UniProtKB/TrEMBL annotation:
Residues 66-105 form the Mechanosensitive ion channel transmembrane helices 2/3 domain. GO terms for molecular function: mechanosensitive monoatomic ion channel activity. Residues 107-174 form the Mechanosensitive ion channel MscS domain. Its main location: membrane. It is a multi-pass membrane protein. PANTHER family: MODERATE CONDUCTANCE MECHANOSENSITIVE CHANNEL YBIO. Keywords: Cell membrane, Membrane, Transmembrane, Transmembrane helix. Belongs to the MscS (TC 1.A.23) family. This is Potassium transporter KefA. The chain crosses the membrane at residues 17-38, 59-80, 86-104. It is found in: Cell membrane. It comes from Pseudolactococcus piscium. GO terms for cellular component: plasma membrane.
């Protein structure tokens, strides 16, 4: 009888080990298939929306991480069920622990939730210049994370802004700005410079010739430049260089 109990015990252990191995293989295959599907879907979408590659990559990683955690949770639940452990009681205990940890991790959850909506709602892109009114911080977005935004300031330093602190975000790159390009002229050069400015403006559709103005007894020819906040300074320098290069 003693050997019979041992044989039964061995059979039970072998059965559970076989079920464990089978569950492990199935969950691994399930996770790999999901990962391939997610990557395939986002790869196709990124080909259609090339400008959104940074946001698409971040969103893809987020969804992959969510599926990974869900798969691990279900796998652990299945293992506990295979070995006959009281899953309901364990989940109840885990719920109590989760409530205790929830108070400590609410900032983390706030970061993740805010980060999710920042990514999904397409509030910013990598390369955008943003301003946080409540933090009085301005910088160019270098990384969009699920927990924080990484900015590069005008001095080149990195600024890490937790998503929970993002309350009043102004995306300066989506604002239209106007600058005036003034070139001093004399009576002898006014006609020649006007022709040159008109020629340069033809190759720069955002620049428009305005006319002649006088500031403090100095005569200028003026063009108006309209463009995005993030790029307009670069355009201004380029066009002014072209004005003066053509004047040499």
């Amino acid at each position: 009888m003693k050997f019979l109990h041992i044989d039964t015990y061995i059979d039970t252990v072998l059965e559970k080990l076989i079920l464990l191995a089978l569950a492990t293989v199935l969950f691994y295959i399930f996770y790999r298939i999901l990962k391939v599907i997610i990557r395939h879907l986002f790869d196709n979408y990124s080909r259609i929306n090339v400008a959104d590659n940074a946001r698409i990559l971040t969103l893809s990683r987020l969804i992959s991480s969510i599926f990974q955690y869900v798969t691990v949770f279900l796998y652990i639940y299945t293992i506990l069920a295979i070995f006959g452990l009281p899953v309901a009681r364990l989940l109840t205990g885990a719920g109590i622990i989760g409530v205790a940890l929830g108070f400590a991790g609410r900032d983390l959850m706030s970061d993740i939730i805010n980060g999710f909506f920042i990514i999904v709602e397409h509030q910013v892109n990598v390369g955008d210049t943003v301003y946080f009114k409540n933090l009085e911080v301005t910088g160019k977005v270098s990384v969009i994370g699920i927990r924080s935004l990484t900015l590069t300031s005008a001095t080149g330093s990195l600024i890490f802004v937790p998503n929970r602190h993002i309350m009043a975000l102004a995306n300066l790159s989506r604002m239209t700005n106007t600058l005036y390009l003034d070139v001093p002229v004399t009576l002898d050069t006014v006609d020649q410079l006007k022709d040159r400015m008109m020629t340069v403006n033809q190759t720069n559709p955002n620049a428009e010739f305005v006319g002649m103005i006088t500031i403090d007894y100095t005569v200028y020819l003026r063009s108006k430049l309209t463009g995005d906040y993030a790029d307009i300074s670069t355009q201004q320098a380029k066009i002014m260089t072209q004005y003066y290069e053509k004047n040499d």
